[in-house]
Design goal:
With 237 residues, this protein is an alpha+beta fold. The chain has 4 helices and 10 strands. A hairpin with a 5-residue loop joins strand 1 and strand 2. InterPro entries: OxRdtase_Mopterin-bd_dom (IPR000572), OxRdtase_Mopterin-bd_sf (IPR036374), TAT_signal (IPR006311).
Length: 237
């Protein structure tokens, strides 16, 4: 009888605790994707810098100019190198992983103001990919395209050949996650983070700089941290 009594009393309490934990868990899971969508929508419509007020994981804020991006991984990811090159190529993730890698640890600076200190990026120097393809005489610039189907960026050839510009495969010493533009994103260490195109799918060597997505909305094409966009941030590289 004592045992029955205890069970009768204990069960509702136990259930209450379990349901409470489940409720908390469900709210936490729901908040992530909602805030992410909200922020990406704001980023799309507000190039003025008043976006991204909600901190994401590890100091970064999620940006995308489209509402959803397909996931790509080692089975279906490709990076094409074409345009004014002697040897156009399509690299798979394993091809990129087999190339020389460089690791850099520098601050990341977004033009809207947030900064993430001492962030490791590792990947193939862009100069190596350009040399592998063989840039034709007369080429002046490089255009980047993304498998989100919308974002573009560009650099002059001199900027692209700097040793602090990577086709990055890892961020904070882990494979780049989908939300951070994985499996492969551009990393342009000395420039505002909008130059570091996420979900990189194409590198095209061109005869002139073609302004990228945000640059069509007023951002500077030469995006040196602390020397562009009217900002006074400390240089990142
Ligand atoms: N494809 C793509 N790349 C992009 C962007 C984007 O919207 N789409 N946003 C840029 C901007 S403004 C910033 S600050 C960083 C944000 O990178 P994160 O989402 O990994 O923090 O990505 C840059 N690269
Ligand atoms: Mo940004």
């Amino acid at each position: 009888m004592d045992t029955t009594h205890e069970e009768d009393r204990g069960t509702p309490v136990g259930r209450r605790v379990v349901l409470g934990l489940l409720g908390l868990g469900a709210a936490g899971v729901a908040a992530g994707p909602f805030l992410q969508r909200l922020e990406s929508g704001l980023a799309e419509r507000d190039p003025s810098g008043l976006t991204g007020l909600l901190p994401g994981n590890n100091g970064f804020r999620y940006y995308s100019v489209v509402t959803s991006v397909p996931e790509r991984d080692a089975t279906n990811y490709t990076l094409t190198v074409d345009g004014l090159v002697e040897r156009p190529a399509t690299h798979r993730l394993a091809d990129l992983q087999a190339m020389p890698q460089r690791r850099l640890v520098k601050d990341v600076q977004c033009v809207t103001g947030w900064r993430v200190p001492d962030t490791p990026f590792e990947g193939v120097p862009l100069a190596h990919l350009l040399d592998t393809a063989g840039v034709q005489p007369g080429a002046k610039a490089v255009r980047f395209s993304c498998f989100d189907g919308a974002y573009t960026e560009s650099l002059t050839l001199d900027q692209a050949r700097r040793d602090d510009v990577l086709v990055a495969l890892s961020l904070q010493d882990k494979p780049i996650t989908h939300d951070h533009g994985g499996p492969v994103r551009l990393y342009v260490a000395p420039m505002y983070f909008y130059k570091s195109a996420k979900w990189l799918s194409g590198i095209t060597v061109t005869d002139e700089v073609q302004p990228g997505y945000w640059e069509g909305n007023g951002y500077d094409v030469d995006a040196w941290v602390g020397r562009s966009n009217g900002r006074v941030d400390a240089p990142t590289s």
